[in-house]
UniProtKB/TrEMBL annotation:
One of its GO terms (molecular function) is ATP hydrolysis activity. This is Multidrug ABC transporter ATP-binding protein. Residues 17-246 form the ABC transporter domain. It comes from Novosphingobium lindaniclasticum LE124. The keyword ATP-binding applies.
């Protein structure tokens, strides 16, 4: 899926969420979080990536008051959330994975009710703005049970935005949503960030994190393995891969090409190149490789070049950690 480019606003280095030494061990002995340290800056989109069971939802639940941590501290907007939970929670929005709303209520009533839960006065104009932005205004009188899965997920986002949070958690917000609805949702999320809302998301669509997130964090087995700016990560660990179709198959890599990171595929009918230093760094080397092929009488019929994606890097990092 191709996403529209997201404008990059200047991100403040003021921390909006500071997590230190956070652990969670359940009664049965399973440890879901193991000493998590994480700082989120005001106005950024932060993508938390990890396999199923890594601790993503538990971490979000801890900040949102749905999970009681075993130990550690959490500061939100500069205050200890355990000491002033009620007022701080009113500034936090959550879009959960699971639908958790009365299916027999109308869309409008449900979203208005969510605003009232946080003690805010009714604001019909604001609610209309949210519903229109999420293409829900025409469905405002419909019962939620009558909506499609994608529209129900939009209702969850509308509920989370009803009280105008400064910090918004999105736990797999586009899971089960078709491509068109997903694109619309991300357009709205981009607008929220441009208004100054800080957004923390988990997603299985890693290409979305690559396109949208200022920074990414990888969590595995309850521990944060790394946190880095998305572009920096792509530049540091990105690689170039080229598949070169040959006119005549080769039995082995010629000595004149020994300086390249090459292997044979498709029974010798294809040269496979992997290399480069950083994202896009291998393109110049591939260009030189093609010149050397021609100079040495090795004809080729096709060449397919691709850059490694954030998903490639993510998988490599997890496999490396498991090795």
């Amino acid at each position: 899926m191709e996403l529209s480019p997201v404008s990059r606003i200047t991100r403040s280095m003021e921390p909006i969420l500071e997590i230190s030494g956070l652990t969670k061990t359940y009664a049965g002995g399973f440890t879901a979080l193991q000493g998590v340290d994480l700082t989120i800056n005001k106005g950024e989109i932060f993508a938390l990536l990890g396999p199923n069971g890594a601790g993503k939802t538990t971490l979000i639940g801890a900040v949102c008051g749905l999970v009681r941590p075993s130990s550690g501290t959490m500061r939100v907007f500069g205050e200890d959330i355990t000491r002033n939970w009620r007022s701080l929670r009113a500034r936090i929005g959550l879009v959960p994975q699971e639908l958790a709303t009365d299916m027999f209520e109308t869309v409008l009533h449900t979203v208005n009710y969510s605003r009232g839960l946080f003690g805010l006065a009714p604001d019909p104009a604001r609610i209309e703005e949210i519903l229109r932005a999420l293409s829900l205004w025409d469905k405002r009188k419909a019962q939620i049970r009558a909506l499609s899965g994608g529209m129900k997920r939009r209702v969850l986002i509308a509920k989370a935005l009803a009280h105008e949070p400064d910090l918004l958690f999105l736990d797999e917000p586009t899971a089960g949503v078709d491509v068109e609805l997903r694109r619309d949702m991300w357009a709205q999320i981009a607008k929220l960030r441009d208004r100054g809302t800080t957004i923390i998301l988990t997603t299985h669509y890693i290409e979305e994190a690559e396109e949208m997130a200022d920074r990414v964090g990888i969590i595995q087995a309850g521990s944060i393995r790394m946190v880095e700016e998305t572009r920096s990560l792509m530049k540091r660990l990105g690689r170039t891969e080229a598949h070169i179709g040959l006119v005549t198959p080769l039995a082995c890599i010629p000595e004149v090409l020994a300086g390249y990171n090459l292997s044979l595929a498709q029974g010798g009918h294809e040269l496979l190149y992997r290399g480069g230093d950083g994202y896009g760094g291998g393109k110049a080397e591939v260009a030189q490789l093609t010149k050397d092929l021609v100079a040495n009488g090795i004809d080729y019929t096709s060449i397919d070049i691709r850059e490694s994606s954030l998903e490639d890097i993510f998988v490599d990092l997890l496999e490396g950690a498991a090795a």
